[in-house]
Amino acid sequence: MSGFERGTDGPKVIVAGVDGSASSLRAAAYAAGLARRQNALLALVYVQPVLAAGAAMGAPVAVATDEIAEGLVAEIRESAERVKEIFQVRWEFHTFRGDAYAGLVSAADELKADAVVVGASESAGHRFVGSVAVRLVKAGRWPVTVVP
Fold first, then answer.
1. Are 15 and 108 in contact (CB under 8 A)?
2. For a Cys-Cys bond, which of 47, 84, 94, 121 suits 103, CB 3.0-4.6 Å?
3. What is the structure's pLDDT at 124?
4. Sign of the alpha-carbon dihedral angle for 103, 109, 110, 113
5. Interval 111-124 mean pLDDT
6. Which sequence spans correspond to the domains of the chain?
7. How high is the pLDDT of residue 1?
8. Paired residues of 126 in beta bridges
9. Cα 148 from Cα 145, distance rounded (Å)
């Protein structure tokens, strides 16, 4: 039997969604610990929001989200460098475009994720309409860990 099979020998790829928020950075740290213990690849994913053309008129949205991605990569590299003598983990940084849920689903599919780790939503509105984390859990396609 050839092909991809999830969950047979522990996770090989752990996807962590990062957006610069405190909860997403805690999720990345938690996922890094999991990846280290499981000798898995940590795939850090930033989903760049895409606004409708009318909403983005005159606003350099792509430039701003590119700068966020660059800032996240710099922060992650700096953190990895600080702990490299005591904490080794293989990691990659990926950016996807779209809304956070669709972007994380695309990332998890494309990277053949065995697990997804996200931070709890810091938005009060998500209590009513459902957070990205809740939508990922309901999708039922990967084990999802939500870090407060």
1. yes
2. 47
3. 57
4. positive
5. 87
6. 17-108
7. 46
8. none
9. 10
3-state secondary structure of 118: strand
The secondary structure element, H or E, covering residue 115 is strand 115-119
**Amino acid sitting at position 57:** M
Q: Could you give the C-alpha distances from 131 to 27, 43, 115, 121, in angstroms and in order? A: 15, 21, 18, 6
Domain 17-108 in this protein, CATH class = alpha beta
**Token pair in block for residue 67:** 């700068």
Question: To which residue do tokens 């475009």 refer?
Answer: 97
* Alpha carbon distance 95, 114 (integer Å): 19
Q: What is the pLDDT of residues 39-94, one digit of tens each?
A: 999 999 988 877 655 455 555 555 566 777 677 767 766 765 665 655 678 888 88
